[in-house]
C-alpha cells in the first residue's frame, strides 16, 4: 500500500460538499430537530427517556467514544435516531417514536408545530449519490430512489457508478429529498459489499441490511485507521 493510500484510509472518506449558501446543509431542518430533541430529552424526564434508547444504540451499533473521528456528527446521528427512528422505551406499537408523539400532541408541555409532522416522517439511509444536473439518491437499505433538492458539488470519481456514498437523514418535500443534517461519507469501495449484503434478505432465512450494522462497521473501520474498508465491512455481521 502506498503512502498516499495509507493517508487516505487514515483520514477517512472525503467530506461531502453541499452548496446551500452556508456551512449547515439542511440548516432549518437541523435547527428544528435540535429544538424538538431538546424538548424531548432535556431535564430529568428527558434523561429517563433517552437512557434506554442510548443503551439500545450501544448494543446494536457501538458505544461512541470522545476520540472517535466525526464524534460530533455521530452525536447528532444518535440523537436524531433516538428521536425519529427508535421506538420509545414504553412504546405501545410500531412507529411509536418520540417525534411522532410530539407531532401528535402527546409530549407534555410541548405545542406541536407543523414542522414536527415532517420531522416525524424523516428517515435515515445509506445513499448512493448519483451526479447529474439534478442529483439522485438511492437508499442501499430501503431501496428508495429520489431526486435531491439540495445543490451539491460532487468530486468526479471516474466510471459510471455513484459519485459518493452518504449516510443522511432526509425529509421528502414536493417529491424531492432535502437533507436534515450534513451527510456522513462512507468509503465508495464498500459499495459492492453493501449491495451484496442487501440482496441477502431475499435468500431463505436472509435478514435485511440494517443501519446499525453499517454504523458499527464504519465506527470500527475509522478506529482501526489503516484497515481496509472492504474487509472491515465484510466481517461485520
Largest sheet: 5 strands, mixed, barrel
* First and last CA, distance: 27 Å
How confident is the prediction overall: mean pLDDT? 88
Strand content: 15-25%
Structural domain count: 1
Structural class: alpha+beta
- The radius of gyration computed from the alpha-carbon positions, rounded to a whole number of angstroms, is 18 Å
Q: List low-confidence stretches.
A: 1-10, 19-23
Tally of extended strands?
8
**Spatial order of the strands forming the largest sheet:** 2-3-4-7-6
Element-level helix/strand string: HEHHHHHEEEEEEEHHH
DSSP helix fraction: 40-55%
Continuous helix count: 9
Broad shape: globular
Please write out the topology.
Elements: H1 3-11, E1 17-18, H2 27-41, H3 43-60, H4 71-84, H5 98-103, H6 114-120, E2 123-130, E3 136-139, E4 145-148, E5 152-153, E6 164-173, E7 176-179, E8 184-186, H7 191-199, H8 211-224, H9 229-235
Parallel strand pairs: 4-7
Antiparallel strand pairs: 1-5, 2-3, 2-6, 3-4, 6-7, 6-8
Helix pairs in contact: 2-3, 8-9
Question: What can you tell me about this protein's structure?
Answer:
By secondary structure, this protein is an alpha+beta fold. It has one domain. It is 42% helix and 16% strand. It has nine helices and eight strands. The protein has helices at residues 3-11, 27-41, 43-60, 71-84, 98-103, 114-120, 191-199, 211-224, 229-235; strands at residues 17-18, 123-130, 136-139, 145-148, 152-153, 164-173, 176-179, 184-186. A five-stranded mixed β-barrel has the order 2-3-4-7-6. A two-stranded antiparallel ribbon has the order 1-5. A hairpin with a 5-residue loop joins strand 2 and strand 3. 36% of the residues are buried. Mean pLDDT is 88; it is low at 1-10 and 19-23.
Amino acid at each position: 500500500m502506498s503512502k498516499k493510500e495509507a493517508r487516505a484510509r487514515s483520514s477517512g472518506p472525503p467530506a461531502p460538499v453541499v452548496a446551500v449558501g452556508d456551512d449547515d446543509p439542511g440548516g432549518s431542518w437541523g435547527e428544528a430537530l435540535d429544538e424538538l430533541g431538546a424538548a424531548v430529552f432535556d431535564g430529568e424526564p428527558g434523561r429517563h427517556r433517552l437512557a434506554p434508547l442510548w443503551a439500545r444504540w450501544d448494543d446494536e451499533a457501538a458505544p461512541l467514544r470522545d476520540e472517535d473521528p466525526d464524534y460530533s456528527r455521530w452525536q447528532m446521528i444518535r440523537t436524531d435516531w433516538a428521536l425519529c427512528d427508535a421506538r420509545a422505551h414504553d412504546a405501545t406499537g410500531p412507529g411509536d417514536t418520540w417525534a411522532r408523539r410530539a407531532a401528535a400532541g402527546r409530549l407534555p408541555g410541548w405545542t406541536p408545530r407543523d414542522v414536527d409532522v415532517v420531522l416525524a416522517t424523516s428517515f435515515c439511509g445509506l445513499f448512493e449519490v448519483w451526479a447529474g444536473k439534478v442529483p439522485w439518491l438511492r437508499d442501499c437499505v430501503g431501496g428508495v430512489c429520489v431526486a435531491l433538492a439540495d445543490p451539491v458539488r460532487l468530486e468526479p470519481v471516474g466510471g459510471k457508478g455513484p459519485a459518493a456514498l452518504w449516510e443522511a437523514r432526509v425529509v421528502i418535500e414536493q417529491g424531492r429529498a432535502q437533507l436534515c443534517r450534513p451527510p456522513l461519507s462512507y468509503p465508495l469501495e464498500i459499495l459492492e459489499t453493501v449491495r451484496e449484503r442487501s440482496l441477502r434478505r431475499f435468500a431463505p432465512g436472509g435478514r435485511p441490511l440494517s443501519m446499525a450494522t453499517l454504523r458499527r462497521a464504519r465506527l470500527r473501520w475509522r478506529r482501526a485507521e489503516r484497515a481496509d474498508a472492504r474487509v472491515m465491512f465484510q466481517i461485520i455481521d
